[in-house]
Each structure stands twice: as C-alpha cells, then as structure tokens.
Amino acid sequence: MTIAIVIDLIDCLTNGSVMTARRFADGLRAKGHEVRLVAVGADGENDCNVKERYVPVLTEVSAKNQIKFGKFDEGKIRKAFTGADIVHFIFPFKLEKKCKKLADEMGIPTTAAFHVQPENVSFNVHLGWCKPFNSMIYAYLKHTFYRQFERIHCPTSFIAQQLANHGYKGELYVISNGYDPAFVPPKERPHNKKFEIVMTGRLSPEKNQQVIIRAIAKSKYKDNIHLTLLGNGPLKNKLAELAEKLDADVSFDFLPKEQLIKRLQASDLYVHSATVEIEAIAAIEAIACGLVPVIAESDLSATKQFALGDKSLFKDGDFEQLAERIDYWYEHPDERASMSGRYAVFAKKFSLDNSLSLAEQMFADEICDYSSRKLERKAPALSRFSLFSRS
C-alpha cells in the first residue's frame, strides 16, 4: 500500500503522539509499504515537509507541551496524496481538516486516530475535573472532524469506550500504539547503591509527578531512594522546588532511545502517576524492560490495564498509598524479581509488530469499503431510473 500519514509535526522527540507516528511510519516501511509523511519536519524522500503555522497565543502555549501546527499547502500536499491508497490522520487540527477535505476531493479513502484526549487540554487550563467542559471538547472534536470518518484508531479500549459514550459513530479499532522491540529486560539487573525509581512522561499537570515526590518523602526508606523523572515540560521547576523542599533525592533527564533503555534496565521500580492517559507507551516500554510498575488508578487513564495485581496500583493522587506500595516492593526483592519476568512476557501483547498488522487490516477494510460506498452512492439514481422505466 501507499499510505499518507498527516500529523502537524514529526520532529519533536518529546511528544508521545509524534513518536507513535514515527514508529508506525518506520514499521510500515519495513513491511514494504510506501509511507509519505505530511508534517512540519518531514524529511524523508517521499515526505511532504510543510511550514509551521503561527497561531497567536496558542502557538506559545502549545510549544510548552511540544506541539507545533502545520500550515496547509495544497500544491505540495496534493502531490504527496497523488497515488496514495489511503490517508491516515493523527491529530484533529486545521492542517488535518483541510487535508481531509482534499483527500475527499481526490477520492482517497481516509482513517483517523484519536490521540488528543480532552482532559489533556482541560488539566492544563485547570478544568481537568469539569465534566461539562470535557464533554464539550469531545463534542467539538466529533462535530468538526471525527464524524467524517468510518474508521477510527483508538489506542485502548478505554478511549474507545469514551468515544462510544460521547456518540462517536465510526467503527472503533482498538490498536495499541505499540512499543519498540529494542525495549527488553537486561541480562542481569545491576545492584544499585540506592533503590532506583523511574517515571517517563511530560512534566505537566495531568501527569501528576508531584505525587511520586511526596510519596518518596513519606516512605520509610526515603534516604535510600532515588527518583529519576524522564521528560520535559512546564512543571519542571516546580517539581524540582518540591523535591528540594521535601528533601527527596530527585533528578531530571531526557534521554535518546538507547540511553533510555539502559536507564530503565538499570532501575528497580517504575511508577506511573498520570491522572490522564490514553495509553502510556512509556509504561509499556518500562514493563517490557522487566520493571514492575506501580500505576495510578484513575478514571481518566487507561494505564491501569497494565497492572497484574493490586500491589501495582494506587489510588490516583494518594501519595500515602503510593508510599506503601513503594515500601512493599522495596521490602520484597524476590517477589519483585519474579514479577519482573511476568511483566516482560505480558508486555509482548503490545508489540509494534502486532499493532502494525492490526493497522494494516484497518487500512485494508477502509479501502475495500470505500469502493463499496462509492457504488452505493450511485445506486439510488439507478434504482429511480429502473422504477421509472417500468411505469
């Protein structure tokens, strides 16, 4: 297949949706498909690099969360779409809306992914728990974009259920974003001077890393614990100040893939504190490296699906219960070693290869049904002519 993928940006390695698109593009190419990326920063041979679109105020705010907006260029994008079997959309913004209209005009089948969880927006404007506000965003996204698609890629059954609850009518394909196969357990986990806890994720309100810092400060083993927060974001300074205030040993870093794998392999426990999460590939990568996770049990997060027992869950925002979980795994190294193997095996069901196969099926389904729908749209006129002839 020749697959065009539209996403506003492709050159930001700290944005989870961008990394997902890059993995999918590389994986599909490895399977023999021609993939054409339409994005800011697209630099492949058949890609379409678009300019960044400036939106007053919104551009500055979005930049803090590693988002850029692409500018529609009909001439360049039409060329990229020519000969494509299908166009797949990652985001629901202005570039994607205009590209969807162009694809329809060109008679090309389309599918879309749902990656922008409304709560990711609302938590950053201090309205995270306002259900009417979140419902309004779901409705806006449906009305302005997703209602145009027959097939929607949902990274988890959690977000698929959310879309169904909010009246999305397209067929919902639950397909994990898939983790890179390079994430594997170490041959031997090192003996650390301190108990090494790690979390990967954007340093922003909905990720709630402050609860980990507070839990470590509450732990019986506070002096023997070191936390590494891997990621960038607007709350980095506030989190550093909190760690200093509570005298918790915390460091911050952002690592390329090879070093990230080594850091995960060298750690003792993974904590995922996010209140809002469509999937959290970061958590899958950690358990694929054999790390036992402790995950926030939130109604707005799908990540709790990765827990293989109550000891890997804590009530969202409850730093005291998280401290208890940390202490438990600190005190039970043999059980942690046993569960490490179980988690590494469990992670394989979310492999990139499996996700790519499911995505290929979704694309094939849409291509096939698109042709059928074109025939159906012509059918009423033929039927009327036939009835008229018999009268």
UniProtKB/TrEMBL annotation:
A Pfam family reported for this protein in Swiss-Prot or TrEMBL: Glyco_transf_4
Domain (Glycosyl transferase family) ranges: 187-340
InterPro entries tied to this protein: Glyco_trans_1 (IPR001296), Glyco_trans_4-like_N (IPR028098), Glycosyltransferase_grp1 (IPR050194)
Database matches in Gene3D superfamilies: Glycogen Phosphorylase B
GO MF terms, alphabetically ordered: glycosyltransferase activity
Tree of life domain: Bacteria
Ranges for domain Glycosyltransferase subfamily 4-like N-terminal: 15-182
Protein name: Glycosyltransferase
Source organism (scientific name): Candidatus Coproplasma stercoripullorum
